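Input record (Table S2, row 352):
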Amino acid sequence: MMIIMKANATPQEVEHVIEHVKSVGLAVHLSQGIEATIIGAIGETHNIPVEQFEILDGVDIVKRITQPFKLASRQFHPEDSVFPLDGFTVGGEEISIIAGPCSVESRSQILETAHAVKEAGASALRGGVFKPRTSPYAFQGLGEEGLEYLAEARDQTGLPIVAEIMSQTQLELMVKYVDVLQVGARNMQNFNLLRAIGETRTTVLLKRGLSATIEELLMSAEYILSGGNKQVMLCERGIRTFETSTRNTTDINSIPVLKNLTHLPVILDPSHSTGYSDYVAAIARAAIAAGADGLIVEVHPDPAHAVSDGKQSLRPEKFAAMVKQVGQIAQIMGRRLASVQGEYSPTRQDWS
Ligand code: PEP
Ligand code: MN
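Output record (manganese (II) ion complex):
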């Protein structure tokens, strides 16, 4: 941490700041130039708030040199995190495509969709069974019944399953069924939930909050990582802006920014980031070109009758066309689409 003193700071003020730095267990590196005095505070600074120093007399600016998201940061882990997920890897050369309906609606709907997305080249199946709906009167999800249908779809196709968890009370049930716990945009800063998930060893897909900064997303990932759960992928799903012609605004910038700041895999959700099926393929292509490690896309066999997010859901044939285009862009980027072959064989992290 760098503490830059005001030009007119007195020697007593400088001395007082030095004492304060030492008192919190940090070493001091003093550099006294003609224009400014800079006090370097060296050591474990990530758990010390900058405000502690900002309020001291004579202090002008306090700057962190290391990121506050220590475990998620590339500074301490320069190589990309690559982890296995039931027959393919996330974060390496392979591009994972997670696809399926917004909500699991019935056994036949999820089985039909699972076979269709597998056929089109998806590497994992998504489907919400606990739905975060704006209205309490809207469909809230099938709960455990939906998880049973997802598990059956996994048995039939070999596709690992991804479903959203909304509360800690669902954790025990969810880890029994799913391969990836999705933390939705609305729960990105549900810190108790993040901590509880950090104690499990189930892979996590953490979505960016509607109005969360990239740093806030990384700090949320830090909650999970600090519990010892290392398999976290981050998901850009669009942010709220003044623009109303799409549901959200895809922050494509976040992909190279995240890839620069963190070693964790980064995927994009073009369904929620646009809100319209017509725009999904374009933004999916852009994401892979921008360096994303994968996609999560809503697909429904009959979008007009979907109970949630039909407007942004692709029909299976449109999804298949999108996968082909994405595959070509992946090749240009020196990557390839992940594909799941054969039997489902769960790969869980080591709990030791
Ligand atoms: C979803 O994936 O269906 C969902 C609710 O996403 P988000 O949390 O990004 O809104
Ligand atoms: Mn949805």
